[in-house]
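#structure-requests
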Amino acid sequence: MRITTPRWAPGTGATRAVALEVLIHGPLSRSEVARRLDLSPGSLTRLSTPLLDMGVLVDAGEQIDGKVGRPVQLLDIVPGSKRFIGMKLTADTVLGVTTDLRGNVLASQSRDLPARQPERVADTIAELATALSAGTPEVTAIGVGIGGLVDEHGFVRSAPFLEWSDVPLGQLIEARAGIPAIVANDLAAYTEYEHWFGAGSGLDRFAVVTLGAGIGFGLVIHDEIVTNDEYGIGLIGHWPLDPFGPVCSEGHRGCAKAVLTDTAISLAVSQAIGRPTSYAEALDLAMAEEPAARRVVDDAGRSLGRLLAAIANLTLPERVVIGGEGVRLAEVAAEAIAEGVRSHRDARTRPIPLTIRSGENIEWCRGAAVVAIQAFVLGSRDED
């Protein structure tokens, strides 16, 4: 029996729409909420009054309306009224954060994995959850992001980096932590943070590209993340970018996985200079204008530019967010990336608006927390 995720008070329909608008975009004036939701002032008052009475919304003071020059009353939620935990699971570590109701990070910790057996991993997750919960209000839910195929019930159908198949991770965590657990693909969770509280908030269409051990792609269209039961296989990693490039483990020549991952770049630089290098050193050498490293990194940058151009041409995003632990490539190879974009975009198109993230693992954890927040706010998880 799964632990039922608590539900947010607003319920469904127009009342919840008001609460969600304020949660995601607030604080907002009443007139702005009414404008966004196409409500009359009377309808907004009718819908917001019970939310204020329940404490879901609060009056958040006044600000001067720039259009009319007079103070207007703001509506907001109380971010600190709830606590959530978000975790990122890697091959050897669990990283975790505590957040408020808006995904703002309040604390972070990590634990090494003593073993990869699902029960041992769940033990470590529960231990970390206990540590993150210490001295805070009661935690509402835990979100865990993992690379691989995850179904809507929290079953990890496939996680090759842990050699897992059909693991009921959500159930294992709940049995140990006693807190509702929502398990999701880590890229989907990352994208949902950008969707609700990050660079994609309020946009109709945006994309996420992550760089690192693999290449990830997330897409939101019409306020919905685009997923299916194949989400998590890493399909964007096999997008062809260089017909003369190296071959990936699946036999594809010059695909994104073969030319853009941190392993691919460090290996190419190592072969070029005749000694082993890490990804970080490879980029350092390129920054120092070491000729071989500079060529490898610029070639990778042009390939990334071609990938961004393909995404822009096919999905027409209003913004592309680039993140992941390998995101420094976007800085070191910025000129080459721009060249790659230009070579595969019509000259009449506008530049692709880019947001470059820091690449810190805390960003993945925050995404996992937002998946837990969404389960609480939307009541989207099935009850078993």
